[in-house]
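Human: Cast an eye over this sequence-structure pair and say how the chain folds.
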Amino acid sequence: MAKKMIGIDIGGTEIKFALIDVYGNISKKWKIKTETADNGNHIPNAIIRAINEEILNGTDGTKDIIGIGIGVPGPISQNGELVVKAVNLGWSDMPLKLVIEKELQLPVILLNDANAAALGEMWKGAARGKANLVFVTLGTGVGGGIILNGEVLNGTHSSGGEIGHIPVQSEEQRICGCGNINCLETYSSANGLLKTMSLLDEKKQLTKDGFTTIDVFDWLKEGNALAEQAVQKTVTHLGFALAGIMNTIDVEEIVVGGGLSEAGDLLLEPLKTVIDRHVFPEIRGNYGVKKAELGNDAGIYGAVYAYLTAQQHPNER
């Protein structure tokens, strides 16, 4: 029987689990609610309890489980043991790896959730067969992960791939949750698109009763000029940022995930047009822009892939 690992993706509202073998086959999936009370101090025990109840105390071939990979919404310490900060969970220097390993007696690998999603898309998703890619997720914010030669670019401060905080040049002054002004995610996230649309619709002909990004793309399909301007502003800022990344590290694939990616070609085609306009001539036309394929499973696939890679190169961390 193939060896199995537990992949975990910790989110602000729920924690997703999957039992995955070394070939990437999922045999079991489940989830629990994220308990953020008391600065998230109950989350490690909730994870341990969920694994014990679903697997270790059951009949799911526990002897074949070799380890655990966990994606978390924040940076990881250089030694791989601490979640340095996870604002949505209330964590600061949470020793998650050590706590889980001690209780379950299984080795644990931690990584940032966006990096996990990037690895997942490389292993089993839109970037299969590619070793150099940029993954960008367009949700309430803009997250990202960069893979070079098959490995996550973590950077000196474990902040590599924070695409959402690339500065944007604009006459506006949009304050980002990180404290800086005019970060990319204030323009190119779902929230950024909604704000842009609201500002453009000065007479509130479309937006007075509330609206969603789905509405914006529906209006775009109907030929609404304001929606076209809003989407173009969103993709222009994102395209500038991605073109800069492409000119710097020259990857094979850009994979776009998150809620806005559901717009498909309405988003991706104008985005690629902007990128093409600004990349080095040798790059133009020689890379792909694809919608992510794995959805909510990307992080758990990537967490398991990170564990597998760590076992193959145990002295690199």
